[in-house]
Amino acid sequence: MADLQASLRAAEDCLDAGEPKEALQHCKAALKADKQSVDAFLLIGRAAHELGEWQQAELAYRKALDVQPNCVAAWTGLARLFAASGNAVGAVEANEKVLSLLPEEDPSHQQHELCLADAYNRCGRYQEAARQYRQLLAHADDEGAEEAPLPETRVELLCRLADIQLKLDEAKAVEEVEARMTDAGPGRSVSNVQLEVLSAQALADEEAAAEACTTQTLLELCSIAPPAERFLKYHEEWLKRCLLKIFSAPPRSVERQHFRLAALRECHTCMWKGGCSALPYEAAVWLLEEEEEIKGGHVPVVGSSCGVAGGVMEGGEGHVGSGQQAVLFAFENFARRMVHQFPSNPTAQVCLGLMLRRRACHDGTRPVPQALRRQIEQLMKRAMEDDSRSDCGTGWKALAELQYENRHYPEAYDTAVRGLRWLHSRRERGHEALTHVALSLRLVVAKALRRMSKLDEAEMHFKVLAGWVTEGETAFGEMSGSSPVSIHQQALRGIALVALERGDKGAAMAQYERILGKAALGRGPAEHWAHADYGWLLYQEGDIQGARQHLEDALKVATSSGCIVTDSQLAEHHYRLGEVYWKMRGRYRTEKQFAYTQFFDAASVEGHAQAPAFAALGRYFQEVEGKAEQAMRCYKRALALDPSVAVAGSGQTPPSWVNNVLGLAGEEAGHAAATKPAASLHGEDSASRGAGYAALGDIAVRS
Hints:
The chain is an all-alpha fold. Among the domains are: about 250-340, no CATH class; about 360-525, Serine Threonine Protein Phosphatase 5, Tetratricopeptide repeat, CATH 1.25.40.10; about 620-703, no CATH class. It is about 70% helix and about 0% strand. The protein has a two-stranded antiparallel ribbon with strand order 1-2. Helix 6 (about 90-100) packs antiparallel against helix 7 (about 110-125). Mean pLDDT is about 80; it is low at about 145-150, about 295-325 and about 660-703. It holds the Pfam family TPR_19. Keywords: Repeat, TPR repeat.
């Protein structure tokens, strides 16, 4: 017996010293002294475990159990062995036996409960695993963390429980989707059915008992877990469930609005916590877009549930001093932080472009310069190359409008069509319909088609818009940086411009008179372009005083506070008013504050009116001031900008007009320039353009 005890002590000392092979030799000596020694078998199992000899270790523990079936140490050794070797079934058996033998007050009882839960999880017995994890969490709540400390933290337990519950929910959702798809009609897609199932599941899970509720587990986990990458998926899953509940209610319903505001509050909470996920910001973007669609963007900050949800509050936290556009300010809150934290995210880049455009528009006190518009266009174009990565419907509207304002008409048309398709697919997925964004895109399509000389298609789109939209309805666009636009007025204007390009001035004037007449009756204000276009038609018809009145009104409206106008639009108004002043003769032609000032303001801005404005300046310098050299420079600049430009009222190109007025060209040069029709200089005919420049150069030399 003394030899047995000595061998066992020596084996234990070797194991403690990290020498399992030496321990096995002492265990063999102990077995020679007593072939039924349970302690020797246990030490052999422990040594073989450390050496990685799984079969030998299990055999030793089994022999110990043959001698003593209820040996807790043997079952504990088997549980550890099976956990290390990956034998989940054996781990379940061993841990269940240990728990049946150990008293509940034993310090290792909860550790074995945790091991049993992990073993259930590895076996695929998720229901038993979830029940075991909930039991562990309940013990911690009942006994207190100080009296019964868990080997694993509460956060880790909640993570494991959440993983299992998410697996169960996913399996249940897959089964339900498959069952519904067998009964679904031909018009139902998998994504639609899946959305219905997931939204109903999220709503039902919230109403379930707390002990079996995935939502409750995620809520508790997100409330105590830091927003680190380790817990990223749980924070995202919690937010996804808040978003899915939105789709369980019908569109435009009060219940849906309630769920939307609750989701916005969660996005706001995630934003102030920080974190590694862009999902709260991306979700907030489309939630606030729907808020703008439903409420028009003008929601009072004080007492506004939307303002609280979006983080718009008086004071430093919301960075909003005062105002009535809570939705817009909430969008700015999310967008600024998203751009700072996720600068390469496509939605963040789109939001940056929208913020830059809003700041460029400012309050409407100055026009938006062309160079800045092009920079913003390039930024948004790069961010929206991939339709599937975009979560911002307002971005399509802003990009299409920018491309149209920058005279990139084919690109504006393509962007608007892509945006309309994206909005359609978005609505098919169950989102609210962004009607005003769609109307604005449809308007860009029609306007771009007119600029591309596809008059029949453009007229069809304009007439459809005029029939769809009532007189007072506007497509607001505070998020996109554009002022509210009357779709009805724009459609009527498009019809008028199409008629004008077809040579039907009577029909065009009738449309403008219709717009201005409604404004005179108080049925909505007339925009600056309505006065400008109608005034130009009156000028062409010979009504100079009427033209002057309307063009001055156009400039007054365009430069008033709150009216967002581009620099090229304003330049066109200046040029037209300058031509009217020129036609009035007298001091309107000779004094610089009239015709000259209007032409100069128009020529300083890149746009459609720049070339004719330079031609008009040349005419002013030649006829009024008698400065041939300055006139020649203006004509050269006009011809370089647009070879087809003609001096207003004469139908002649600048070279021929200079030849006729100055009489400085020789007979050959004068004949070549005077007989050259304006149309021959239009387009890409390099020979005719070269002849025009040669004649102009000859005139410059002679002068």
